[in-house]
Amino acid sequence: MNRFYKDVTLAEAEGGFHVLLDGKPVKTPGRNALRLPTRRLAEAVAAEWHVQGEEVVATSMPLLRLSNTVIDGVAVNRADVVTAILRFGENDLLCYRAHQPLELANRQAEGWDPMLAWARQRLGARLHVAQGLTHRDQPPEALAALREVMEGYDAWTLAGLHVIASITGSLVLGLAVVEGHATGPHAFALSRIDEAYQIEKWGQDAEAEQRAANLARDMDRAVELIAAVR
Q1: Fewer Cβ atoms within 10 Å of its own Cβ: the N or the C terminal residue of the chain?
Q2: Which one, of 221, 117, 113, 203, lies nearest residue 167 by Cα?
Q3: Percent of the chain with pLDDT over 90
């Protein structure tokens, strides 16, 4: 759509900040007030509006889109969101290992075992590891521990965690980022050990490389959202 505003400003509101376009507060697609919990996040969202040219491109405003998702979706469906994220723990990438080739299996163990040890020691979640892709049920007490951690998060952090877990295929990696045990780039690299191995053996595909870059960018924005609400 065409740019319909000139000035982008902020205004304090009860419980946070509003982004104003020509003095009018921005609303979400659900017609809710876009009330952002911290100045840092409000400034980041305002910057996305400010840099738009003659055309407003929604896909170039990832923090705004995430914020809309939080307000219209996560905040009003919190329990369902926690359950959806927990599924990434039920089928966590880190728990499914290659048997062969041995080099790949060793890389997985080197990268993933420390993360599972952290989840066991710090989160109280002892997850089982299996070889191959056949599903293995995780202990109910481990999943309960992961759920308990997530239930302590606000809606904004849950939204960021959902993005990270979706991209990496791992709730453990997502929680490691949220809890400060891993950086976003490190978690992303760990989630792509298999892909990195295949690239070494067979070379890079331009289309796959672009998909990976897009995923890395989306993950960076999720990490930025989590940091901005703290």
Answers
A1: N
A2: 221
A3: 97
